[in-house]
Amino acid sequence: MCESRQPPVMQHLVVMLPVLNEALGLAWVLERLPYDRLEAMGYTTTVLVMDGHSTDETETVAASHGVLFVDQDDFGKGSAIRHGFREALALEADAVVMLDADGTYNPAEMTRLLKALTNHDVVVGDRLNGDIAPDSMTRMNYVGNHLLTWFATALFGVTTSDVCSGYWAFHRTAIETLMLNSRSFEIEAEMFASMVHRSIPFGFVPISYRTRLGEAKLGSTADGWAILRKLITRRILPNPLL
């Protein structure tokens, strides 16, 4: 008599998209999410749009694609991500992928980050050693990204390949372990610092990076200094002031 074969246990993946007036980019990303490939990898997928109080058609785009839309409880990208982590844990996510919903990151490449989670608790998409489109960064941003990445490596004594990347994959346990208080664009640098302090295993996967859709929100100089200050602060203070 043949034994009945049980279907494989699917893991729950939450794809988190922090947005602020990104109707054009959000539509582009949602239309390219690799649902079939994710299912073949053993994931059921929930898409979570964390909105920073948009005034354009962002919410309408989210509704038309049937994804979860949450108005974040504060302002800034860092606040959106921290709030999004709490939402993902409440949704009982086994894994989380976060990426900017502005067309700069290829949604299909999340499968590569998720495959690398077999060896790490966090995987970061590495733009600086990947395929960067010619017009996707200004020269100042390109140099600034390399300098901040070098400073992060020097300050913490642990190599990072791209400290400002906006494309990450996490195991649930990593999200539960990270200690963060960033409100703005310094959030990725703080996640790196927290991973080092909390001994969270992480790795990098080279990715592509393209020209954004819509108006840029990252300011070259002011945000760069804020990121550097966060790195220095978290080097001195392993735990953030919550």
Describe the structure.
This protein has 242 residues and is α/β, with parallel strands linked by helices. It has a domain at 11-135 and 164-184 and 198-212: Spore Coat Polysaccharide Biosynthesis Protein SpsA, Chain A, CATH 3.90.550. It is built from 9 helices and 7 strands, in the order βααβαβαβαβαβααβα. A 7-stranded mixed beta sheet has the order 3-2-1-4-6-5-7, sandwiched between helices. Helix 6 (139-156) runs parallel beside helix 9 and helix 8 packs parallel to helix 9. The model has no long low-confidence stretch (mean pLDDT 94).
Mean pLDDT: 94
Measured between the Cα atoms of the first and last residue, the distance is 60 Å
Query: In CATH terms, what is the fold-level topology of one domain?
Result: Spore Coat Polysaccharide Biosynthesis Protein SpsA, Chain A
Q: Measured on Cα atoms, how large is the radius of gyration?
A: 18 Å
CATH homologous superfamily caption of one domain: Spore Coat Polysaccharide Biosynthesis Protein SpsA, Chain A
Question: What would you say about this model in short?
Answer:
The protein is 39% helix and 20% strand. It is α/β, with parallel strands linked by helices and 242 residues long.
What secondary-structure arrangement, pairings included, does this model have?
Blueprint: E1 11-19, H1 23-30, H2 35-40, E2 43-51, H3 58-64, E3 68-71, H4 77-90, E4 95-98, H5 110-116, E5 122-132, H6 139-156, E6 168-171, H7 172-177, H8 187-197, E7 202-209, H9 220-236
Parallel strand pairs: 1-2, 1-4, 2-3, 5-7
Antiparallel strand pairs: 4-6, 5-6
